[in-house]
């Protein structure tokens, strides 16, 4: 687990799961203060989140208190000594947040989608040492997420944390936003030194799923959690259904299981290595079989070239799909995954045969 606590607050917080929590929006001084005082009871808490400017899909919804709420934050910061994080979506909001001494800024999903906005914010931050969290863009465009981080790095921001808040779904998921776990995993392979915090509130859209998603995030080695909490969630002016009370949040945090990357028990560790050894052997067999398959595809390609036969053979391909799906089902394998693997293999076969028919060598696939 990367040290999100140190990056965002400059302090360390032991082996806990770092938690950033607070209301979706700062609605009133009382609401914010009561929530924060209750949240202080959770030992994982490293910073408070509070929306000041709220980007809403359609006008007419509560769009945040605006700059005035920064004064409440300042007062509560003084009283509690806690660090506060605020979302900024453009240059003047960034300037106002910095003037108010906000400790951590975050760039929201609706801003990460737009490189112009991210750049505008980055320009205000040039030469300033403030930690910034970058939420994934609304749709699953990994490049924009990485690009957001790169824009901040280019102006000298060093303390950066990515936030996974899920991706737009047109109502096809039980969740408000589709987690698409493969995207943060992919993000990690591109930017291994940037910690990722999961925001289960925005993924779930419903408080009942927050524990489940938080646990899934920890099991994928995410480095912390960002969760919306309100002392009276049902009366919240925004995101009422997904906010939990500080007491509920405390319970969620206690129930979460922090799993280690490797078992401490030496017997279990040896068993793990033995099983991995067997997987290595099987993977090598898979690769050797793929190499043999490739040679057959090449021979068929030469035959097609010499006898003027089309590369793509739908009838044969449909038979393969039917046969391999059926076998996958019998073997208890995930049919969709097996189909995807065969689609990739088929795509590669087509490419190999195209090269043969065009008279090129087939080294590159
Ligand atoms: C190998 C062939 O060419 C293509 C590749 C296929 C494959 O990879 O199995 C199947 C059908 C064709 O679209 C073939 O015609 O059999």
TrEMBL record:
One of its GO terms (molecular function) is chorismate mutase activity. It holds the Pfam family CM_2. The keyword Transferase applies. Its EC number is 5.4.99.5. SUPFAM superfamilies: Aldolase, Chorismate mutase II. Residues 266-357 form the Chorismate mutase domain. GO terms for biological process: chorismate metabolic process. It comes from the Bacteria. This is chorismate mutase. It comes from Thermaurantimonas aggregans.
């Amino acid at each position: 687990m990367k040290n999100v606590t140190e990056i965002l607050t400059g302090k360390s917080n032991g082996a806990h799961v770092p938690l950033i929590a607070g209301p979706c929006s700062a609605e009133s001084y009382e609401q914010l203060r009561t929530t924060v005082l209750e949240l202080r009871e959770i030992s994982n808490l490293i910073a408070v989140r509070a929306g000041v400017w709220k980007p809403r899909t359609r006008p007419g919804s509560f769009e945040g208190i605006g700059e005035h709420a920064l004064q409440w934050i300042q007062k509560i910061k003084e009283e509690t000594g806690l660090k506060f994080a605020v979302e900024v979506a453009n240059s003047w909001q960034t300037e106002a947040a910095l003037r108010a001494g906000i400790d951590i800024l975050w760039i929201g999903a609706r801003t990460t989608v737009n490189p112009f906005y991210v750049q505008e914010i980055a320009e205000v931050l040039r030469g300033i040492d403030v930690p910034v969290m970058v939420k994934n863009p609304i749709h699953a465009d990994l490049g924009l997420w990485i690009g957001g981080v790169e824009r901040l790095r280019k102006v000298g921001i060093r303390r950066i944390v990515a936030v996974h808040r899920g991706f737009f779904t047109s109502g096809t998921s039980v969740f408000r936003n589709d987690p698409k776990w493969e995207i943060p995993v992919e993000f990690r392979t591109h930017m291994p030194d940037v910690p990722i915090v999961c925001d289960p509130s925005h993924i779930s859209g419903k408080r009942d799923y927050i524990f489940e998603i938080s646990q899934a995030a920890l099991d994928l080695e995410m480095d912390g959690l960002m969760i919306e909490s309100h002392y009276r969630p049902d009366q919240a002016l925004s995101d009422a259904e997904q906010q939990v009370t500080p007491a509920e949040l405390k319970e969620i945090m206690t129930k979460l299981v922090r799993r280690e990357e490797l078992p401490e028990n030496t017997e279990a560790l040896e068993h793990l290595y033995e099983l991995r050894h067997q997987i290595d052997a099987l993977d090598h067999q898979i690769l050797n079989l793929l190499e043999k398959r490739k040679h057959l595809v090449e021979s068929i390609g030469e035959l097609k070239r010499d006898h003027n036969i089309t590369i793509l053979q739908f009838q044969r391909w449909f038979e393969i799909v039917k046969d391999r799906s059926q076998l996958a089902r019998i073997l208890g394998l995930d049919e969709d995954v097996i189909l995807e693997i065969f689609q990739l293999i088929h795509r590669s076969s087509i490419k190999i045969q195209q090269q043969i028919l065009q008279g090129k060598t087939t080294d590159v696939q």
